[in-house]
Amino acid sequence: MRCMNISPVIRLRADSVVEGSPVWVRFKKLRPGEVRVWYKPVHVYGVTLRVLACKNLPGQTLSLAYQGHAEPALKRYALRWTAENMHQALKSRCFFLESTHLTQPARISTLLAVVALAFVWCWLVAMSEAA
User: DSSP secondary structure string, 2-67?
Assistant: First the structure.
């Protein structure tokens, strides 16, 4: 992947083995809101990467394997996560986009534009209520 100028950012399961032990063991004392970076590159699934973990306020831990610097890796993963959530919502969670059976490109384009606006609106409403 690196030869195409794409830096990998891979979410690690808690039981992923890094340096002979599960990744959760390395970050078990992480406090909510804290980001901890393991600066020494290690082998993860046969690739040399760095590892970081962060814990959100509800106490869920996110472990990532990445190349480069920690902050851009977290930002890239956040964008990816947002795109994955939107894709999942459009397909099966609430919009059921595949159920339309549209085949004409102009109609699909219009539908995608309207659904994308609706999705952003829902997201903005949810963010304003969470604040």
Answer: GGGT---EEEEPTT-EETTEEHHHHTTTPPTT-EEEEEEEEEETTEEEEEEEEE-TT--EEEEEES
